[in-house]
Predict the structure.
Amino acid sequence: MPSGSAVVLWSIVAVIPAGVGAFLGVDRLGAARRQGARAGAAERALGWANASAAGLMLGVAYAVLAEGTALSPLGGTLGAAIGVTLVHLLGLVAGSAEGGAPREGPRRGAARVVTASALHSAAEGIAIGAAAALAPEFGLFLVLTFAIHNVSEGAVLGSALAAGDRQAVSAAGAAMGARTGQPLLAGLTLLAIGVLPALQPWALGVAFGALVYLVLSELLPSSYHQTGRTSIAVMVSVAAGIVALLGGRAVR
Amino acid sequence: MSETWRVFVYALATALATGVGALPFVLVRDLSDRVIAASNAIAAGLMLGASLGLVAEGARHGGWQTFLGVNVGIGFILLTQKLLGGHDPDVGAFRGAGARRMLLMVVVMTVHSFAEGAAVGVSFGGGMALATAITVAIAVHNVPEGLAISAVLRPQGVSVLGCVGWSVFSSLPQPLMAVPAFLFVERVAVALPYGLGFAAGAMIFMVLVELLPEAYEQERARRVALLTGLTLAGMLLFQQYV
């Protein structure tokens, strides 16, 4: 099994699927959105992409919380509250618009999605670092899950960038650039826990709170705008259930 | 008091808590959409927290069984939605769109109360600490549900007492469902993770299909996320130390 540092290195590789997703987002979804006849189908595909990303993030969040509260009930749960508040304040400072704001222009919409993606990747990085410090297998499981989720998140980002007339290759670069926070924060978190192991449950709690906040503030509102709430609810809950189940096994 | 009676009394208390949601209408005729949205966001956080507690307890008894139960719970709510979708009835003296909305609200709340009643019942199978946490969570969560029901009924001319009555009525399946659910998991111990998963799945699905979309319609997404996230964290903390 890999060491904690190797898991962080793997998380660099996990950024690449975001570029692939963004390329496809511009090339396929962005083009389809501009064609009246296929625009509805493209919107639904984006809604499901957002929903699958939300489900994967919630499943990871549950697995991370379970480990955090097992180490320290107070650290895990208060860390969750800190994570929620921290990302909310960061969002206010970054000035990103509301998820799925209907009247924003294409450039503002693209900037919002890139900012949201950067925030997501930072929260995911904390989760990966804290999980890798706990058990490398658990960290690797998170890296794999986020790699899959990066495809759908990259596709959403690519589609938003296509509306602002970005080319597919440039969008892929932007998507990967926005997600560099993931390996960076993973490394920093692993380092911090190595120096101060008592941070472990707090870091897991913060990761849980941040992931849940981002799902609630960005992914879910966007997906509800794009397609029906029942199909979104089914996809989110089933994806979250599968990841939570497998995540619990990865750490044992 | 026997354990069965205790389950009934706890679940009855959660049903009565729904009536508390009608009380603000003694002072005002109407509540703003933002207040209703905030109530929905808080209720979503409470229900998600309670559901995570149920899933964690279920996973201790069997991960796959809990996962299967979660999916059956989702299927249950999907089925009830489908069965309710085609109905278009009148309610006594109330007719038209308002009456349809009134009945739909009461019926939806009543049907999903079955899942919450099952949650209270099966949580007793996981010990008193879990049962107390889930009962308090559902009781507190029922208050904004009563608020939501009354917010629809009161502008239609229903009295405050009527709002209290309909709110409590919508949660009566909770004591009725809690006892058989408890007896079932008590006698068939192997059913416990399925039951816990079922209740969690039904509640999570209700949050995703009803509470959150309605909150987003009336309030900014970031505020909904903050309220729901902090309530969820508070509920998790409560469950750790109850």
